[in-house]
Amino acid sequence: MAVQTTAEQPMPVGEVSRLIGGWIDRLGAVWVEGQITQISRRPGAGVVFLTLRDPSHDISLTVTCFRGVFDRVADVIGEGARVVVFGKPEWYAPRGQLSLRATDLRAVGVGELLARLEALKKSLASEGLFAPERKRPLPFLPGCVGLVTGRASAAERDVLQNARLRWPAVRFAVRNVAVQGVHAVPQVIEALQELDAAPEVDVIIVARGGGSVEDLLPFSDEALIRAVSAARTPVVSAIGHEPDSPLLDLVADLRASTPTDAAKRTVPDVGEEQSRVRQLRERGRWVLETYLDREERGLAAAVSRPVLAEPQRMIAGRAEEVEALVARSRRTLGHLLERAEADLAHTRARVVALSPAATLRRGYAVLQRADGAAVRDPAEVTSGETLRARVAEGAFTVTVDGPDQEQGRAEQR
């Protein structure tokens, strides 16, 4: 239950310490796993003091155990070893210090570590952290390469030297961190996140030389694996040698077998690129020359054709055709005109032969009354009437008399 206190009624330090101790006592004995960072064995002392640290978090805990408990495993564990401790939390009231009183101390074997790593591997794989579709391609020519590695390590030297031999202008942003031990995981994560946040860094290499399974455990830590998965910048894993396979290799965008291999696969070789450029230029020149040769041959073949070699021949041939068509048109038109002329002459002859003028030329005359009506019957005129007589060569007037009229009627009868 919460303790009720006020500024006027504070709780003494001793009472607070006593209550904390009571709460801790109720926890009971527990199994705890961690990494030993410090061992203190004083000569003649019956108690051994250990510092147990969580590799994934910056948290340590003091462990005390009797010398007899520690001596049973003193030959197989040391600083940096992973152990499992069975003990009861204790609160040392005079100093306000928490510790773990161990009654059993066991080293974590390689087989057990591998089994735990395999279980963690399956768990992370089920989340899709190792899926191939999550892998990002590396830039062809990174402007700046981030490098996370140990200080003055062979891995750092291998990456820098091989990268600069391949591309002398390459730039590096190096972050030196602990690559084994309890400080490795938080330092590597911090350096990774710092480089990932830098806009000038195009790719990040995490490199370390070879080591035992225990030495490479930080690079299989779940917190580090998730940090790499969350990074926006492509990450290259170069941990150990070919047989070494920490979980970092599975989550990284590219796994390099060695730090030297990481440098070769991250930075292109300037000599190879220059050779490739020369080859491409030669290939381009050859393709262009081949194209020009083919077009020149095609042009020569086209020019050699008669229509282009002697273009006037085509015009002359067409001119002859035009002349022939013109002559044919003239003949046809002449025939049409001659036929039309003959038809016209025939029709004219018929018209002339049938016209009144032709009749008049044969000696006939046309008598017309004063109103212009032609006289067709003697009964139509009267004696003494003046008529107009029209002959072939002109006209004159005549007067109708009686005897003639009678004679005309007799002739009509």
Question: In words, what does this structure look like?
Answer:
This protein is an alpha/beta fold and 413 residues long. Helices cover 44% and strands 22% of the residues. The protein has 13 helices and 13 strands. It has helices at 13-25, 67-71, 110-126, 154-166, 184-197, 222-230, 247-251, 259-266, 270-303, 306-309, 311-354, 356-361, 402-412, and strands at 30-41, 47-54, 59-66, 82-92, 97-107, 144-149, 171-176, 203-208, 235-239, 254-255, 366-368, 386-391, 394-399. The strands form three sheets. Strands 1-2-3-5-4 form a five-stranded mixed β-barrel. α5 (184-197) packs parallel to α6. The longest helix is centred in the C-terminal third of the chain and has 44 residues, at 311-354. The chain is rod-shaped. The chain starts with 12 loop residues before the first helix and ends with a helix. The relative contact order is 0.06. The model is unreliable at 405-413 (pLDDT under 50).
Please outline what is shown here.
The chain is 44% helix and 22% strand. The protein is built from 13 helices and 13 strands. It is rod-shaped and about 200 Å long.
What structural keywords apply?
five-stranded mixed barrel, 413 residues, five-stranded parallel sheet, alpha/beta, disordered C terminus, 22% strand
Outline the fold blueprint.
Layout: H1 13-25, E1 30-41, E2 47-54, E3 59-66, H2 67-71, E4 82-92, E5 97-107, H3 110-126, E6 144-149, H4 154-166, E7 171-176, H5 184-197, E8 203-208, H6 222-230, E9 235-239, H7 247-251, E10 254-255, H8 259-266, H9 270-303, H10 306-309, H11 311-354, H12 356-361, E11 366-368, E12 386-391, E13 394-399, H13 402-412
Parallel strand pairs: 3-5, 6-7, 6-8, 8-9, 9-10
Antiparallel strand pairs: 1-2, 1-4, 2-3, 4-5, 11-12, 12-13
Helix pairs in contact: 4-8, 5-6
